[in-house]
């Protein structure tokens, strides 16, 4: 079994965590819709430069179907993700993203026929549990605090929907990659996502466009975030083509662990309570990468 996908998935996780940390810094003074949009915009230059060297594969109906279905789902997930962060605290929303790999065990089997082994499934579960506990900042509310908050927190419900939507886009993305090529799909897909998201962002952030665009410091930060995001796209798509989608997305969740490190270095967040989650994620990582 080749482990190239593990390196690529880890690089994808690192790139995503770095991009997210830069975006978080920009969100301190910028509209969330415009910040998310600018990251997408600044992701495109490197992707489009690489596109010149990517041969156009023979595309069939399955590619077009997966591509066209995934696009609106991706936009919906992006909008709901932003709304979830706006309506509720991070500690009550982000933990629910950990359920995406678990949902993928079922969704990827139904859509792609991919089966995970018992060992791989156990690893996915440990990574999911680790990433869940990693985001429990309010320990006083207990392990099930986010679930108890569902009835009163709109953001929690939205993030659960986002987790389900991401399992669909991941499986549809794997289908499109299988019927084209990783880099071709990555470039065309994220270009289309950016184009479709543009009117949404400009409308929702219409009162702050000039402020955000004229802020040179924010612009430089988001350019860097976009570059890391483009690396994430390329490594994500390539890793996806080399292994089962549930395995790849689980390993990519290591970005949450890397994000904790950035939280300490850049925002002086307390990380002492994150150790149990980190250990669970590491144990899950070992099981997944050694599974067949």
For the structure shown, list the relevant keywords.
292 residues
Question: How are the SSEs placed, and which strands pair?
Answer:
Layout: H1 4-27, H2 32-51, H3 61-87, H4 90-93, H5 100-112, H6 118-134, H7 145-148, H8 154-178, H9 182-204, H10 209-214, H11 216-240, H12 245-252, H13 254-267, H14 275-290
Helix pairs in contact: 1-2, 1-11, 1-12, 1-13, 2-9, 2-11, 3-8, 3-9, 5-6, 5-8, 5-12, 6-12, 6-14, 8-9, 9-11
Describe the 3D structure.
This protein has 292 residues and is mostly helical. Helix content is 77%, strand content 0%. It has helices spanning 4-27, 32-51, 61-87, 90-93, 100-112, 118-134, 145-148, 154-178, 182-204, 209-214, 216-240, 245-252, 254-267, 275-290. The protein starts with a helix and ends with a helix.
Shape verdict: globular
Please report the distance between the alpha carbons of the first and last residues.
Answer: 8 Å
Mean pLDDT: 84
- How many distinct folded domains? 1
Judged by helices, strands and strand pairing, the structural class is: mainly alpha
Strand element count: 0
Q: Let me know the largest β-sheet.
A: none
Number of helices: 14
Question: What can be said about this structure in brief?
Answer:
The protein is built from 14 helices and no strands. By secondary structure, the protein is mainly alpha-helical.
